[in-house]
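queue> holo job accepted (adenine)
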Amino acid sequence: MRIDVVTIFPGYFDALELSLMGKARDRGLIDLHVHDLRESAHDKHRTVDDTPTGGGAGMVMKPEPWGQAIDGILADAQSAPAAEPLIIFPSPAGDVFTQAMARELATEDHLVFGCGRYEGIDQRVFDEYAERGRVRLVSIGDYVLNGGEVASIAMIEAIGRLLPGVVGNPDSLVEESHESGLLEYPSYTKPAEWRGRRVPDVLLSGNHAAIDAWRHEQSVERTRRVRPDLLGD
Ligand code: ADE
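queue> job finished
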């Protein structure tokens, strides 16, 4: 999968050089390109924001640098034989990102993340690219971040780990929280006793049917307690 990111803080995305995402990039499974929006701003101070038209607090990101940056990515994409890119603008005003959305986005060939800052991006940028192609506003939850960078990293990690070959043992993807609509059961490893706390006997029993039943029960109980909304309760 090709992923382009437009941001005024490219350094945030250094985190994607680490761990599984870094390995996936080294192995060519994820082709990540991070673009500094300021390189598409041409005044002396490389200005990317201005005051809101009509008044109000804060600053709004100007359309011209965004236009140049995204046009450049789309022109580059046109020369490659991949499907039409999907442009995602992280925004607290967007559709809520879920595991189901991560699965859906993991089937795309090319994602472009546009990271807004300040009070947001001039609306005409969304309108321009929605008219020319596919655009989604996506929120990672009901709270406000300072910009789209952290939200993009969260989405890239959630999507990237679903790509074939990224996670070594694909079985580990199946039993996770949210994949079955339930939260994950508690996990234990050795030693069988630590600070007087014993691993539940059933997990040491070797009886796999009993272990599966216990884990399912734990998942249901945890989901009912922590996230009853997932059960429709
Ligand atoms: N930008 C600021 N807050 C955000 C959120 N909750 N989700 C996605 N992008 C954001």
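queue> The beta strands are 2-7, 31-36, 49-50, 60-61, 86-96, 110-114, 134-139, 193-194, 197-198.
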